Structure formats: structure tokens, C-alpha cells
Fold this protein.
Amino acid sequence: MKMEVTELGPMKRALKIEVPAEEVNQRFIRAYTALNKQVRVPGFRPGKAPVPLLEKRYAKAVEEDVIRSLVPDYYDKAIKQAGIVPILVEIPPLERVKIQKDAAFSFTATVEIRPTIQLRDYKAPNPISLKPDKRAVTDEQIDKALEVLREQMAQLHPAAPGSALAEGDYAVVDIEGFLNDHALEGTKKEGHLHKAGSKMSILGIDVDSHIIGNKESDVVDIPQVYPPNHPDPRVAGKTVIFRCALRSIKQKKLAPLDDEFAKDCGPYTSIQDIKDKLRAEMERALKKDIDASYKDTILKRLAEIHHFDLPQTLVERELTAIVRQHLQNRRRKQDDPGNAEAAARTEDMKKLQEEHRPEAERRVKTSLILEAIADKEGLTVTSEDLDAEITRLAAEIKISVEEIRRMIQAGGQDSLDDLRARVLADKTLDFVYRHAVIQG
């Protein structure tokens, strides 16, 4: 095999690959032998048709088959011989490539490659230096957490007879919509518990301003005007009267923070037991947050001290993924999925891409730096690493490990490669973090 490498840019190469005539002939022989066993030629037994006759009838198809078999094989050999790791490969279409027996076969592959990164300081003798994060769990935070727990354990008791509903009280209400004095199907809710002053709507209706100040058994009518373009034609451009009956008023009663309260919360013997558990949980969460903050600083520092051109193919892939995730998040936040999809179609995509391009470039840059460090340090992903990540993902999104594995298998090799790449990046970042120095 002959090969010529032409530099088309900092990260682009043209590989002109020439396959020897002997190999071309061997591929033609194999192709016609396989074809002879598959086709039926009148007057000849299976597998006994003369090759010249097959060439006359099937030459074009066989040439394409030979090209399909030669190109990937010799492309793989070429990139190994050239010592490059391609990101994007462009091979000319089959109709533009010519091949014939007894002649060498040439084709050109254009590849985009990963940049060469000259790694700078990330471990001793010049490790990354981090400013100390002196945050700590305080007694005040523990007390606030106790109050939250106290609120969660609070019980609702009936308000005193004759009490008026006030902010912070709880109302048990029945509500139903009426149009022209007729009940409107789908607008009825009974026994709904509503916290007065929470500004939470019921059936899309703001009830606080209408029911606060009323007493048990009171009934109020709440008019709701709907716009002419409302999707429900029954109410579009009309006024619906929502009749809201205040069935009962309840008030939250907080238990005293004593040892009896602790026993009601679980396997605790005292308030101090709860405080100790709260402190341990909050300290674990704080350590996780501090570690994440340190690692984010490390990634920013690595990006600042390394300078190289970014492969635009990777940037565009990452940008596409970010924009897609952005649009998906917007759809989930919308009350009306149909309207959300319409908004996504009409959104100025160019502006959205410009907004997220710096983040895409940052992700690609740090990913390439971490890959270079992993390669230099000989870091790899073991089956144990993958199992641990799968277990972590299952716990995080609260589904079984088996289901996570099925999802990965359904995604094929690309899904597994993505998982492996994420695990390797995390492992490499942990390596740099362990070798960093925290000042003071």
C-alpha cells in the first residue's frame, strides 16, 4: 500500500491511498466467486458460469462491491500507518471512484484530526493551586433544618368554630365551574386541600383573594373570563362562574422540639440524635458541593493555561446537543406541549446557537485536555468503573440497574462509548484534583 498525507490545515489531512493491483485482482476474484454461487445463469450449473459472462452482466455491481470492501480496510490501515486519530472522515461517493482489474486502485480520504496538545502544569512539581473553601455547617443551619422537619411533622387541626380563613391556614374546598347556570364537565374538584396565601391555583383559578376572610360553610362565586382564542371552544370568549364552597378550615400545629418529637420522627431517642444525623448529612452534602466547586475551578484553570485550535466538528456536535437539551427543557416547563413545540420551531435558532457556542467550545476544550491527560497518565476505564457508574445512575434517577443496562444496550456501541468517555473524564478530573494543592 502506498499513501501520501497532505496537510490541508491545522487539523485537516488528505490521505491519498493506493491499493496494489495484486490486491485489487484478489478482491475481484473473491467477488466473482461469491457471485457465481448466488446467481443462476441459464445453461450453466450453479457456480459454473464463465467469469467473462458474469463480467458482461454484473461488472458494475461487482466493481461497487470491491470498492466497498477495499475502502474501509485500506482506510483503517492508512490512519494507523499515519498515526492519526480521526474525528471526521470524508470519503468520495462510489460513483466518483473508478476501479478496474489489473490496475492499482486509488482513493482519497479527507480527515479531521484531534489537535496535538502540549500539556502544561497539572501535577507535581507544579500542581494546580486552589484557594481554600472554608465553608462549614453551622448551628444556625442545623436549627433551620430542624424547623423544616418540624414543619413536615406538623399536624392539621380544625380551627376554632367561627374562625375566618387567614393566610397560612388550610382550607378544604369544593369547586365547580358553571356556564349559563349549567355545570361544566371537567371543572369539578371536591375535598381539595389548599393553603391560604400560597397563590396556588385550583383548576387554573386564583382563589386566595376570594376565600381569605370567609368562614366555614361560606360559598363564593368566582368569575373567570376566557379569551376568544382559548383552545377549549366551550369557554372561548365566555365567562365561567366557579362556585367555591369552604367546607372546613384547618390550622397547622407545631410540636415542641423535645425528645418525644424526636421519637416520632424515627429511630431516635433524643433531639441531639436528630441534630447529629442532620449535621452528618449536611456535612456530606457540603463536602460534595465543595469538591464540585474545586473541580469546576480546575476545569477553568486547565482551559486557561492550554491553547490550541478546536476541531469544529466536535464543537458543532456539542452545540447541537446543548441546543436540543435547551429546547427539551423548555417543552417540559410549558403547560401546553403543543404550544412549546410551536415556540421551538419559530425560535431564532441562530441566536440560540450563538448564545450557547462559548459553552460548547469550553466543553470540547476541557474534554480534549482531560483525554490528553488520561492518555499520558495511562488512565483507563475498567468494567468495575462502568458497573459503579451504572449503579450510581440507577440510584440517581431511581430505576433498577438492569433497566439502565437495557437502555445502554438499546443505544448500541455509541451509547457504551459515551458512557465510557464520561467515566474516563470523571476519573481523569479526580486524578488532577488529587494532585492539586489547596493553599493554607
